[in-house]
């Protein structure tokens, strides 16, 4: 048994470094961009012509629908729709592309609610004080509101990223050879599924533990003194 552990653990671990972690990082960065755009649109009420306000409301409604859709359906189903379903309408995506798109859209829906709640939690007086000294909207956001909102959003966003690292195991269902798929392939050759799945579980736990420690120091760094 120890020979199997010594020979297979490095292969699974390297697969995590090469595929699992990069997929999670890339998807999370994209999801934060999506989340920031959605959160800003949803908290904003533009002034201007009726047409402009109507178009803005239309965009806001689309984002509300998008968030509802991705929070209301299982991630596994979303992966299957993007990878196996889209080819039926002429859109063919590779496993990497399909995985990153799906993880990004899914995480973006949840992260947008986190950012929206964090921005909304900043007292209204902060906005009013900033406007009273003549700051334009974008400077109010970048200099006053966002720094405070980020402090609030860091813990839930960190938890979302750790969850995303674990969710990448679902990418094996669309033939993406990440850690879990690697352990499955090894198990099919050595007929030791219990051992292989236990090893990959321990490696996932290791990665998530490291991220949890990083989250702790990040929260300490950004906590209000």
TrEMBL record:
GO CC terms, sorted: ATP-binding cassette (ABC) transporter complex
Protein family: Belongs to the binding-protein-dependent transport system permease family.
The protein's name in its UniProt record: L-cystine transport system permease protein TcyB
Record keywords: Amino-acid transport, Cell membrane, Membrane, Transmembrane, Transmembrane helix, Transport
One Pfam family of this chain: BPD_transp_1
Location in or out of the cell: Cell membrane
Any one GO molecular function term: L-cystine transmembrane transporter activity
Subcellular location, principal: membrane
Coiled coil spans: none
Record-linked PROSITE patterns: ABC_TM1
Transmembrane segments: 20-41, 195-218
Organism annotation: Lactobacillus psittaci DSM 15354
ABC transmembrane type-1 domain sequence ranges: 17-212
Gene3D superfamilies, per the entry: MetI-like
Highest taxon of source: Bacteria
Membrane topology: Multi-pass membrane protein
InterPro entries documented for this protein: AA_ABC_transptr_permease_3TM, ArtM/GltK/GlnP/TcyL/YhdX-like, MetI-like, MetI-like_sf
PANTHER family: L-CYSTINE TRANSPORT SYSTEM PERMEASE PROTEIN TCYL, MEMBRANE COMPONENT OF AMINO ACID ABC TRANSPORTER
């Amino acid at each position: 048994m120890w020979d199997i552990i010594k020979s297979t653990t490095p292969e699974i671990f390297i697969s995590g470094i090469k595929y699992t972690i990069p997929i999670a990082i890339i998807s999370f960065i994209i999801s934060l961009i999506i989340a920031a755009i959605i959160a800003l649109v949803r908290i904003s009420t533009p002034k201007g012509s009726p047409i402009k306000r109507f178009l803005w409301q239309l965009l806001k409604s689309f984002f509300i629908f998008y968030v509802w859709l991705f929070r209301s359906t299982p991630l596994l189903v979303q992966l299957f729709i993007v990878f196996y379903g889209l080819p039926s309408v002429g859109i063919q995506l590779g496993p990497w592309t399909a995985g990153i798109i799906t993880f990004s859209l899914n995480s973006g829906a949840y992260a947008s609610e986190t950012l929206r709640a964090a921005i909304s939690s900043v007292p209204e007086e902060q906005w009013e004080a900033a406007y009273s000294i003549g700051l334009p909207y974008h400077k109010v956001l970048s200099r006053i509101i966002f720094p405070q909102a980020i402090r609030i959003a860091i813990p839930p966003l960190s938890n979302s990223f750790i969850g995303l690292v674990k969710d990448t195991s679902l990418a094996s269902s669309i033939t993406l050879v990440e850690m879990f798929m690697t352990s499955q392939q090894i198990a099919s050759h050595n007929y030791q599924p219990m051992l292989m799945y236990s090893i990959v579980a321990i490696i996932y736990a290791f990665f998530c533990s490291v991220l949890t420690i990083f989250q702790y120091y990040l929260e300490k760094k950004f906590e209000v003194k």
